[in-house]
Each structure stands twice: as structure tokens, then as C-alpha cells.
Specification:
alpha/beta, 4-stranded parallel sheet, 10 strands
Length: 343
């Protein structure tokens, strides 16, 4: 069987171990696995490797961040010509299956292609941890570790200078990264997209924390809705998502705290630092297991599916269900953790 594999959307730790796991298992089945460069753009522009991937190509990838296949945020469904180019490239190379490693957008394309008769399998990758049908996505744990280290370092500075510091982390519609970072890093307040921003409550909590220990730490997800944006024009990407990097949530929150409390407040943004670097041990193992299971799906011709983690088991779920609804932080979970960061 001839199979194409691609990575789409933002890179994150775990993509390379997942590629490695898939190729190693696929070789056991006798598949010829071809790398498709730059995500769906690679099928639009026929950026397909001339030779299949070998053990030598992948065995050293276990500790490597990013993706050796490169990536893009191309959405072929925005342009009928691009969509036709994708289908033409698949037919030209005789691919019997396309394995896509990505988040909501990348796997959304895979789901649509499957409905049009193209055999696809999805592997869940996203730092945001917001895909349905899986308990965790690889990239999330590594990102949280980076952010917790950043928060630990910011605590030293905040304490030394008697300041309030706001750390802005990634998370478009789901606040998993912010919640885990804030709880693990001992933040005094956490702002999530799922919880409406209450500036008065935020400032009250900051003042309480500052009165106790002489500093305060706030973690804010980049997807938090700001009151001033209600009628503001926003820039969107190829999938129609607001470009969050230009919103400066952390800076806005810091200025608001300083204005309302009179406390010296600074902001920091980990940004793309969250995406790079070696994957955590958890992400290496999870990505490897998902890659192996994806190869099994192809072997069993179980297409239109996404491999997923349920408890400690790797299972499969329909792609359509996985991308149909975002997995956001449940209010009950947030409420149960409030005592840890709101005293």
C-alpha cells in the first residue's frame, strides 16, 4: 500500500515522534510511506517526496521538536482549484490513504475529503488540547511545562520587585493551557476563554494576593474576550479564525490591573516559545502510540477515523465527531479548582 503522511497547522512537540511511530509500524506492514511537505499545501503544489521514508529517516526523531515534514495553514476548501489540485496529486501518486497529523482545521479537511471518497486517518495534534473524542492531544503537556517554567521564573522577578505580572499563554477557544499552567505554577488568578472576564473580581483577587505576599501572578489565555473588542474589526486566517497574536491580551490585562489598583504591573508572553523544543516524555509516548495505532487503522482499512486517547487506551473515533465540537474546559472543573487560585 502507498500512503502519504502530512502535518498541518501550527507545529508542536510530538509531531516527529508521531511520524516516527507511524512509519515504523507501517514498515512492518510493508507500506511505502511518502512524506508530503507543508501540510495540505503539499498536495496543492505536489510537494511529495520522491522516495518513501525509511527507518534511517525517522529513528532519530523521538526527541526532536517541530516537524520534519514542515507545515502550513493551507485550507484547500477555500478555493475549488486548490481542492481539485489536492485530489489530482493524490491520484497522480497513487496514494491509497492520506494520514494527517493536526488539530481541528487540519483534521477538518481530512474529514471532508473522506466524505468525498478519499481514504484518510487523523492523528490529534494541538497544544490547545481542544479536540473532542480524545482525553489529551500531544503538544499540550510540553507547552504547559514551558509555561510553568516561565511562571516560576516570573515569580522570582515579581517577588523581588513587588510587582504584579501577567503571563499570556496560547489557547484560542479553550483554556486548557492556561488552566494547567496556572494551577501547576501557583498563579493567583487564571483567565480562560470559557469564563467571562470580570475585571473587578480579577483586581480584587490581585489586591488580596499582593497584600498577603507583596506580589501577584496572573495567567491569561490569549483567547479571553476583551470588552473593547465588541465592535472592532479583526484579522482572520485561512480557516476564518481571528489572528490572536495581534490582540495583546496580556498587555491589556496588565494595564487594566495597574490602572484600577495602582500596583506596578508587567506582562509577558511565551508565544511561539511554547511550540518549540523537545517534547516531554508524556508527549513522546502519547505521540508514538497514536502513530502506531494510525498505521493499524490504515492496515485495517478503517478510514475516516481519528486515533485517540481514552483513559490509558488508544482507540479510534469518527473524524467528523472529533472536529464537530471543540473540547473546552468544563465549568465544573474550573469551579473545583477555583480555591487553588482565588483566595
Amino acid at each position: 500500500m502507498k500512503v502519504g503522511i502530512l502535518t498541518g497547522g501550527g507545529d508542536c512537540p510530538g509531531l516527529n515522534p508521531a511520524i516516527r511511530g507511524f512509519v515504523m509500524k507501517a514498515l512492518d506492514y510493508g507500506f511505502a510511506v511518502y512524506g508530503i511537505r507543508e501540510g495540505w499545501k503539499g498536495l496543492v503544489n505536489d510537494l511529495v517526496d520522491k522516495e518513501p521514508l525509511t527507518i534511517a529517516d525517522v529513528e532519530e526523531l523521538i526527541d526532536k521538536g517541530g516537524t520534519v515534514l514542515r507545515s502550513s495553514r493551507t485550507n484547500p476548501y477555500k478555493d475549488p482549484a486548490q481542492l481539485q489540485a489536492v485530489k489530482t496529486t493524490i491520484q497522480k501518486h497513487g496514494f491509497e490513504a492520506i494520514v494527517a497529523l493536526g488539530g481541528e482545521d487540519t483534521l477538518g479537511v481530512a474529514s471532508k475529503l473522506y466524505k468525498e471518497g478519499i481514504n484518510t486517518v487523523g492523528v490529534p495534534k494541538t497544544m490547545d488540547n481542544d479536540l473532542s473524542e480524545t482525553d489529551y492531544t500531544f503538544g499540550f503537556d510540553s507547552a504547559v511545562q514551558v509555561n510553568v517554567e516561565a511562571l516560576d521564573r516570573l515569580r522570582d522577578t515579581a517577588r523581588s520587585h513587588s510587582r504584579v505580572i501577567v503571563l499570556e499563554v496560547m489557547g484560542r477557544h479553550a483554556g486548557w493551557v492556561a488552566l494547567y499552567t496556572g494551577v501547576a505554577g501557583g498563579a493567583d488568578y487564571i483567565l480562560l476563554p470559557e469564563v467571562p472576564l470580570n475585571v473587578e473580581e480579577l483586581c480584587t483577587q490581585v489586591q488580596r494576593a499582593y497584600a498577603r505576599k507583596g506580589y501577584a501572578l496572573v495567567v491569561a489565555s490569549e483567547g479571553v474576550e476583551l470588552p473593547e473588542e465588541e465592535h472592532k474589526e479583526t484579522k482572520v486566517d485561512a480557516f476564518g479564525h481571528v489572528v490572536l497574536g495581534e490582540r495583546n491580551v496580556g498587555e491589556w490585562v496588565a494595564k487594566e490591573i495597574e490602572k484600577r489598583t495602582g500596583l506596578e504591573t508587567r506582562s509577558a508572553v511565551t508565544g511561539h516559545i511554547q511550540r518549540g523544543g523537545a517534547p516531554s516524555a508524556f508527549d513522546r509516548v502519547l505521540a508514538s502510540r497514536l502513530g502506531v495505532r494510525a498505521a493499524q487503522c490504515v492496515y485495517e482499512r478503517d478510514f475516516g477515523k481519528m486515533v485517540a486517547l481514552h483513559g490509558n487506551d488508544i482507540v479510534v473515533a469518527p473524524l467528523e465527531a472529533a472536529v464537530g465540537t471543540l473540547r473546552t474546559v468544563p465549568k465544573a472543573l474550573y469551579d473545583s479548582l477555583v480555591p487553588l487560585f482565588n483566595k
